[in-house]
């Protein structure tokens, strides 16, 4: 079974670069404070790395 990551949007995407907005949207985050659970893959880790100033991550 793959490890899971809990990703929470803690800062707004207003005023951020368009690529950051797209990464947040691709992670499945729409609203501030929303949490999603994703599999721990290199692709997901890469998206998180790009927007690590906007999200909080913990292992589930």
Number of helices: 2
The fraction of residues assigned to DSSP E strands is: 25-35%
| Count of all domains | 1
Largest sheet, in brief, is:
3 strands, antiparallel
What proportion of the residues is helical, as a percent range?
A: 25-40%
List low-pLDDT spans: none
* Structural class computed from helices and strand pairing: alpha+beta
CATH 4th-level superfamily? Ribosomal protein L30/L7
Query: Given the C-alpha coordinates, what overall shape results?
Result: globular
Radius of gyration: 11 Å
The tally of beta strands, per DSSP, is: 3
Q: Which strands sit side by side, in order, in the main sheet?
A: 2-1-3
CATH domain class? Alpha Beta
Q: Roughly what is the average pLDDT, rounded to an integer?
A: 95
What is the end-to-end distance?
12 Å
CATH architecture: 2-Layer Sandwich
Q: What string gives the helices and strands in order?
A: EHEHE
| CATH-defined topology | Ribosomal Protein L30, Chain: A
